[in-house]
Amino acid sequence: MTTALFYILGLIMLSATLLCITRRNPVHAVIYMVLALFALALEFYLLGAPLVAAWEVIVYAGAIMVLFLFIIMMLGLAPQETPEGPGWRRWLPLALLSASLIACTLLLIMQDPAAGKPIGEFYLMPQQLGEALFGRYALAVELASFQLLFASIGAYMLGRPLSEKGPKDGLKEDKE
Amino acid sequence: MTVPFGHALILASMLFALGLTCVLARRQIIMILIGVEIMLNAASLVFVAASAYWRQADGQVFVILLMAITAAEVAVALAMVVYLWRRKRTLVADAFNEMGR
């Protein structure tokens, strides 16, 4: 049962991603991306990572994708901002390159003796994950929190209005 | 679960190739960022599958850290998108082809 679910969810994820990257309207693309992320979260659950699956839905689908949607709607890109969508002539060489990349990866995976072995039953309790996260990897957690702080400061600096000290207006003030 | 480990890797590599195609083919900066997100998700799928295969918690810890890093990256990248929009009133990547002003 879980085996069939794995393949069905994989199919949903790949088709939703394919629809996502070919949409002209960025809002539709984000919605399809959310669908792919839900399927990916269920895959995580099947692979024995319930906490990661929950955080995938909360952080990715709930926060990051909504941030994308918010920016798209704030800038008013939704209705018409797709001047000339990529035609098939633009997609064909890239699709060929990606297909050859997948083929090479498939050959490499098939050569690996571990590839044929089943994954097996595995279920990591959130408690064990927390012990690993805040025990052995406590330093990495601290570094990630530093990085989030720096990113929020950087986003604030980038998000200031241009007229305050923008590149163009700053130069004008210097000349005056 | 009786799924072979290779099939999870194949699924992740297909997802990664789709994300790479999105980054290379699309012109709009927001779609390029979505392609980057797709590639990061493929990487986290590999981490979780390896964590289940070797029965270790480390892979899932890395996915949690990857989520934190992605959140930071998206915050800065979307702030840059707003900045670029304010400068040129467009988000087509071809418009930003000069250095400086």
Can you tell me about this structure?
The complex is a heterodimer of chains A (176) and B (101). Chain A has helices spanning 2-22, 26-46, 50-74, 88-111, 126-134, 138-159, 162-165, 167-175. Chain A is mainly alpha-helical. In chain A, α2 (26-46) packs antiparallel against α3 (50-74). The N and C termini of chain A lie far apart (74 Å). Chain B has a single domain (5-89), classed as Helix Hairpins, CATH 1.10.287.3510. Chain B has helices at residues 5-25, 29-54, 58-88. The model of chain B has no long low-confidence stretch (mean pLDDT 90). The interface between A and B is large, with 91 and 70 residues.
Give keywords:
heterodimer; A: mainly alpha; 77% helix; 0% strand; disordered C terminus; B: 101 residues; mainly alpha; Helix Hairpins; 3 helices
Shape of chain A: globular
Work out the radius of gyration of chain B. Answer: 17 Å
Mean pLDDT of chain A: 85
Please outline the major beta sheet of chain B: none
Give the oligomeric state of the chains in this entry, treating copies of one chain as homo and distinct chains as hetero.
heterodimer
Strand % of chain A is under 5%
Distance between the termini of chain A: 74 Å
At a glance:
The complex is a heterodimer of chains A (176) and B (101). In chain A, 77% of the residues lie in helices and 0% in strands.
Layout: helices, strands, pairs:
The complex is a heterodimer of chains A (176) and B (101).
Chain A: H1 2-22, H2 26-46, H3 50-74, H4 88-111, H5 126-134, H6 138-159, H7 162-165, H8 167-175
Helix pairs in contact in A: 1-2, 2-3
Chain B: H1 5-25, H2 29-54, H3 58-88
